[in-house]
Amino acid sequence: xxxxxxxxxxxxxxxxxxxxxxTKKQYLVLDAIPVLTRTIMVFDRxxxxxxxxxxxxxxxxxxxxxHIIEPYAFTKKIxxxxxxGTRQASVVNGISRAARLCDGAPGSLVLxxxxxxxxVSLDLINRxxxxxxKKGGCIxxxxxNDTLKLTGQxxxxxxxxxxxxxxxxxxxxxxxxxxxxxxxxxxxxxQFSGTDDAxxxxxxxxxxxxxxxxxENIKLTTPDDLVxxxxxxxxx
Length: 236
Fold this sequence. Notes:
Layout: E1 6-11, E2 29-30, E3 33-34, H1 35-44, E4 52-56, H2 61-69, E5 78-82, H3 87-102, E6 109-114, H4 122-135, E7 137-143, E8 148-151, E9 157-161, E10 167-169, E11 173-176, H5 177-190, H6 197-203, E12 209-212, H7 223-235
Parallel strand pairs: 1-4, 1-6, 4-5, 7-12
Antiparallel strand pairs: 2-3, 6-11, 7-10, 7-11, 8-9
């Protein structure tokens, strides 16, 4: 029986419209290294990872091989997978490739991660994998410090929410491969569209647990995030 595998699925198939400019945010350069390359590097240096899947726009495959992968000495095999019309479709494509790589190995995990989160730590990855291996699914989550208001029409406040029960989800979101595959099949059957992979698991009534995330594990979405990214790099 094959041993369980650990397969990161790095999702970088978006257009990055909120960042502005002509370059997609995953290909922007931070201190001479593209953001997506930096993200791949984190998983490449993790000893427990097997092959790495990177989901990108189909038309970008040549660019990615030439500018994101080949100039850097990655030790693990990088599989480029074409994205779909939505993030959810892109993740499904990545999971399909992961299933072929795992070849039915029981207990295999996938780590679904945003390509524009280059500062995830190895410690966080380890905690996520430990919990997911035992319980089926785990995501990093941050506490909310601000007071939260629920509004209705005309933005009139309806009530104040209990921030102690509300968290901000990050990635990587780690799941047993067999469970997340079933969850996405159920999502297609029920026409469910989620904003993250944990919501797809929840829709299928699979339990998802949390572990504390990191304030440095930021998603580069707007120009302000690039300023914060450079601060994080200067502190390292």
